[in-house]
Amino acid sequence: MMFPLGNKELKIGILGMTEGNGHPYSWSAMFNGYTKEYMDLCEFPVIPDYLYKQPPHTFGIPGAKITHICCTGYAEREMAEKMAKASNIPNVVDDPTEMIGQVDAVICATDVGSEHVERCRPFLEAGIPMFIDKPMVDNEEDLKTFIQWRKEGKKFISSSSLRYCKEMEIYYENHSELGKLMYICKPMAKKYETYGIHALEHIYPLLGPGFISAQNTGTYEQAMVHLKHESGCYVDIAQGIGMPGAGTTIVGTAGARYVTTGDSYYCFKKQLDLFVEWLRTGKEPVPFEHTVELMKLVIAGLRSREEGGREVFLKEIDV
After folding, report:
1. pTM of the model
2. Predicted confidence (pLDDT) at residue 75 exceeds the cutoff of 80
3. Residue 282 within a domain
């Protein structure tokens, strides 16, 4: 397949799903719109809640539709049929590989990093470009595989939607009024394996590359991750199952801010808009080397917890 794809009408497949993750509902609706009588039946009430608040003109990405869906793993055909009805997806398939030859790109909308190599392999080896939900990986061997695929010219990107919070964008662009950044704290919901990357990528544009180490003194149920950056700034991520996320505290030598976020639709929609722009132009929204560093932070945080809270240096992760 030629890449980038230019201005052609794009047919995109979407893969699901994992427990607690309803992205195929919401992301597909952002491309295709939705049918309310079926979206009302969505198992994730937060999704119709924020979709219904959006003006109709915000739905749709010009020249791109989700045309195929397949759910394997946590849910199968029945769930895929429900999602297809809710988000106006015309084709449901039982085997993901049935999409090959039928779609121009694929979204892997699952958030268990250890599954992504095998979920993505058939499409990347067939030359189909992919967007991979966060985290791309959660272990060193799989990161090596994706790096090798990149060297071979396979086309994929991965990111967390929390990189695109509109309330944080002004600070990513310019936070000079705060002086030199000294400390950042980002509480986050759920478990570090799947949602740690949300906190990591949310704060990453404030500091950029140059993270040194991660130390996780918490547990599986409640993470406490301390990060060091070469700039001298420290970062804490407090995270727990059953704990809600909270705003971001940013402290510099000249001031501090507490930034709250609340527009999930904006985050997801911008992420998908940039995915389509990448498909059309080849312009990556996030440099791959930044994604690799973020994955090392995920891996280091998990390794630290498993090794009794040891400080794990990113240079230890040999990829």
Report:
1. 0.96
2. no
3. no
